[in-house]
Specification:
3 domains; globular; alpha+beta; Dna Ligase, domain 1; 24% strand; D-amino Acid Aminotransferase, Chain A, domain 1; Rossmann fold
Length: 454
């Protein structure tokens, strides 16, 4: 690969996604640079990268969110590309622009697309203009309660208020009648201001009992964009995903083509040129509506890799280096079924309270069709400063039944002693008849009897 444009990648992230990028880079013959906070000095991404540079103390604002220190590390190490992973600065358009201005290759979408799709209200308007179905609601930011009441009266209750700069369920509030609009509007606005530094809200019709379907897309710098099928991300707790699967048990091949084409249409509208995800709400009648676009690699990308046999991180690197996509749409084929369980250091019986304590014993499952993406090891001390994800258990089967049976087996084999984890909850879910039937919606975890403190 002597003629390959990228020679050394700095990974501006931590944990399992940093390891994932390191592995892809090594297989492409590319050197890697890890950055780490003081809290992560013993992390695996630091050990397995070719170089490692400390960029600050544990708080994210002073390390993984500090663009100046990350760019300095890139300069010191001679890295000619930066991969942001997910979270932290991955969807920060200003950072992407700074990277390019510094003469470094940005392994992600162009900053114009990040900025356009990062503003939820603007993203919705853009998709509507592109012809992608959108949920009825406001045309942009709703400044006043009076305006919110007018719109809600037109489209009907219930409605949902959302932070335009939001994510992760923060700044989102359901309004079921006009009487409660004023108080809920104030609460949502204050929450948005506190979480994102921006109090702006927009309003949408609230879809009851929906499913959460997302479509993986990837584009290059020559205008080629394809989709790699859908992922079912409906099993969530307070808008945080716990289990993902592909294909969705409710999406037929005909519907896959329709929703996939809509995702590509939306991505083309913003000249998308990397890996990204178009997220949709799917209602009980089979109608789908654009929700948002994630302009980065997703936590759940491995399940798409397993059923398509396409390495998404390698593909990201190649298109950033100026290569064309390795596949055309008609060369993409989904085979089999795949699940991903997010294994978090949390106690489901105590309202998912984080459990950041040392791991005293660890055993990962193995066997056919089992993949582990994890930063954990025996003796690893979980830092309390970041998210609680210990790793992702990914299981592939020839069909949904085999994948479920294999996931049950793999979960029972997985041993994590020390911290509380979500493994017991996953075991219960994969043995629940409702989940096994595939007939569930985003309220699933609110209705099960085996989850305390719902």
């Amino acid at each position: 690969m002597s003629d390959f444009q990228i020679k050394k990648i700095l990974i501006a992230n931590r944990g399992e996604i940093a390891l994932r990028v390191i592995r892809a880079a090594k297989e492409l013959g590319i050197k890697t640079v890890a950055v780490y906070s003081v809290a992560d000095k013993d992390s695996l991404h630091v050990r397995f990268a070719d170089e490692a540079i400390c960029i600050g103390p544990p708080p994210s604002a002073e390390s993984y969110l500090n663009s100046t220190r990350i760019l300095a590390a890139a300069e010191i190490s001679g890295a000619d590309a930066i991969h942001p992973g997910y979270g932290f600065l991955s969807e920060n358009a200003d950072f992407a622009e700074q990277v390019i201005a510094s003469g470094i290759i940005w392994i992600g979408p162009n900053h114009h697309a990040i900025r356009q799709m990062g503003d939820k209200a603007l993203a919705k308007a853009t998709m509507k203009e592109a012809g992608v179905p959108v949920i009825p609601g406001s045309n942009g930011i709703v400044k006043e309660v009076y305006t919110a009441l007018q719109i809600a009266n037109e489209i009907g209750y219930p409605v949902i208020l959302k932070a335009t700069a939001g994510g992760g369920g923060r700044g989102m509030r359901i309004v079921r009648n006009a009487e409660s609009m004023e108080s809920i509007f104030g609460i949502a606005s204050a929450e948005a201001e506190s979480a994102f530094g921006c109090a702006d809200l927009y309003l949408e019709k609230y879809i009851e009992q929906p499913r959460h379907i997302e479509v993986q897309v990837i584009g290059d710098k020559y205008g080629n964009i394809i989709h790699l099928g859908e992922r079912e991300c409906t099993i969530q707790r307070r808008h945080q995903k716990l289990i993902e699967e592909t294909p969705s048990p409710v999406i037929t091949p005909e519907r896959r083509e329709i929703i996939g084409n809509a995702a590509v249409l939306g991505a083309k509208k913003v000249n998308y040129d990397s890996a990204g995800t178009m997220e949709f709400i799917y209602d009980p009648e089979g109608k789908f509506y654009f929700l948002e676009m994630n302009t980065r690699i997703q936590v759940e990308h491995p399940i798409t890799e397993q059923v398509t046999r396409i390495d998404l991180v390698k593909e990201q690197i190649r298109v950033a280096a100026g290569e064309k996509l390795s596949k055309t749409q008609d060369q993409v084929h989904m085979r089999g079924h795949c699940f991903e369980c997010r294994i978090n250091a949390e106690d489901p019986d105590r309202n998912f309270l984080p459990s950041p304590i040392p791991i005293t014993a660890l055993h990962f499952p193995g066997g056919p069709g089992v993949r582990i993406d994890s930063c954990a090891y025996d003796g690893y001390v979980i830092p309390p400063y970041y998210d609680s994800l210990l790793g992702k258990l990914i299981v592939f089967g020839i069909d949904r039944h085999e994948a479920i049976m294999r996931m049950r087996r793999a979960l029972e084999e997985m041993i994590v002693e020390g911290p509380k984890t979500t493994i017991p909850l996953h075991i219960k879910i994969f043995n629940d008849p409702v989940f096994v039937s595939g007939k569930f919606d985003t309220t699933y975890l609110e209705t099960v009897s085996f989850l305390k403190n719902k």
